[in-house]
Amino acid sequence: MEQKSHVKLLMYAGTLFLVVLSVLAIVGTIFLTKGSQRYDENTISVSGTAEVNSAPDIANFSFTVKETSKTNKEAQDVISEKVSTILDGLEELGIKEKDIKTQSYTIYPKYEYVRVEREQEVAVDGTIYFPGNDRQRVQTGFDVSQNVSLKLRDFDQVGTVLELLAETGVENLNGPNFDIEDPEALQEEAREEAIDDAKDKAKRLAKDLGVKLGDVVSFNENKGGWYPQPYARMELQAVSFDMEDSFAPELPTGENTISSNVTITYTIK
Question: How many CB atoms lie within 10 A of CB 180?
Answer without folding.
Answer: 17
